[in-house]
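R.M. (postdoc): so does anyone remember the format we settled on? I'll just put the structure tokens first.
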């Protein structure tokens, strides 16, 4: 193994949740967590699987003051054939390294990191739920952990993986979401950290999220940080529009998070013969399409919901309905195809799934 891992078994394992329809998202955690430390002298060292529990931090720890933190979100699925599998894990590992580079955190060896993920998921395999649509959500994260207040790139880094059994996102069927387009706050600018999956991006997004919720909208659609004109993404999802038969999705300009679900959808759509344009799309262009009837479907893409139809769009006092506030045919086809591959219900022709172990 690239990174040796010691294992300390939890002496008091918990009961697995009896009712898998009540799992929700990120509320229940498994019996163990993975941890590993880094400093320039020793590199990555002390890889360990230990009982799940609180992490002691120095009160001056960098992460608490300057928010030096990055994370990933991915899922382990129990396939129809009984295996535990990950979906495109190398993509998450590469993105983690790209995020690390932006925040001056150390790189992980890609194959070594995959070994860690597989070893840890195998340890927790009994926590991968069995019901349709459920999975084990993995949250790898890394943070700066120097015990002093000087503002520098960090010397001490902690890498952690926790996991949480999560329920079917659409327990009551796929209902379209209501989205508010944010015209005041911005999430990210080019040259900033928009393309990195870092905690700070979320900290800055909460106020607009609150406002949207107060007005009855579930999520915020962000515009670009300079002209506030071009569509970027939704909360924790990338966004796609079907306009006059073509698919348009904002291009990755540096302020948009490069989603793995986005990438997978683009690949599938092109395989199916659709024209997919990755380009700037302004809010004016979108509403012109909504007004003249060419905006056929809109949806968000992300690991949690996979594909999420957008039914309503609110902007500067006006609300627009998309696709009669129902899930569109193409949105449904994308959802069925991706979840089919993830849960092993349809052939994985692109070899996107990586087997961890037998379940
Ligand atoms: C994680 C994330 C996404 C979705 O990425 P996936 O790899 O598809 O899960 C989109 N936007 C933001 C801001 C994110 O943090």
């Amino acid at each position: 193994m690239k990174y040796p891992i010691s294992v300390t078994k939890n002496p008091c394992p918990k009961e697995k949740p009896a009712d898998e329809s009540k799992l929700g998202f990120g509320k229940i955690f498994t019996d163990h967590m993975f941890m590993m430390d880094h400093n320039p002298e020793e590199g990555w060292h002390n890889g360990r699987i230990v009982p799940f529990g609180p992490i002691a931090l120095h009160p001056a720890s960098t992460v608490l003051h300057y928010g030096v933190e990055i994370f990933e979100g991915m899922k382990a699925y129990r396939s129809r054939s009984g295996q535990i599998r990950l979906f495109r894990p190398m993509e998450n590992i590469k993105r983690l390294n790209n995020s690390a580079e932006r925040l001056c955190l150390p790189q992980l060896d890609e194959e070594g990191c995959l070994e860690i993920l597989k070893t840890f998921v195998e340890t927790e395999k009994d926590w991968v739920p069995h019901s349709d649509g459920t999975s084990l959500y993995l949250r790898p994260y890394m943070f700066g952990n120097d015990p002093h207040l000087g503002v520098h790139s960090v010397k001490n880094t902690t890498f952690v993986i926790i996991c949480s059994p999560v329920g079917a996102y659409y327990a009551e069927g796929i209902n379209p979401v209501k989205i508010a387009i944010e015209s005041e706050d911005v999430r990210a600018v080019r040259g900033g950290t928009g393309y990195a999956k870092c905690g700070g991006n979320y900290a800055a997004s909460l106020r607009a999220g609150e406002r949207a919720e107060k007005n009855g909208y579930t999520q915020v659609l962000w515009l670009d940080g300079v002209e506030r004109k071009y569509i970027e993404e939704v909360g924790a999802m990338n966004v796609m529009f079907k306009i006059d038969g073509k698919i348009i999705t904002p291009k990755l300009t540096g302020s948009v998070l490069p989603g793995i679900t986005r990438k997978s959808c683009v690949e599938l759509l092109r395989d199916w013969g659709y024209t997919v344009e990755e380009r700037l799309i302004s809010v004016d262009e979108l509403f012109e399409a909504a007004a003249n009837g060419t905006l056929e479907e809109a949806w968000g893409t992300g690991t949690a919901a996979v594909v999420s139809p957008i039914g309503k769009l609110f902007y500067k006092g006006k609300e627009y309905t998309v696709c009669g506030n129902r899930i569109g045919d193409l949105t449904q086809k994308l959802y069925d195809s991706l979840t089919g591959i993830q849960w092993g219900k349809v052939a994985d022709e692109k070899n996107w799934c990586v087997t961890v172990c037998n379940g």
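R.M.: ...and that's the designed sequence above, right after the tokens. Also worth knowing: The mean pLDDT is 96. The chain has two domains: 5-166, 177-327.
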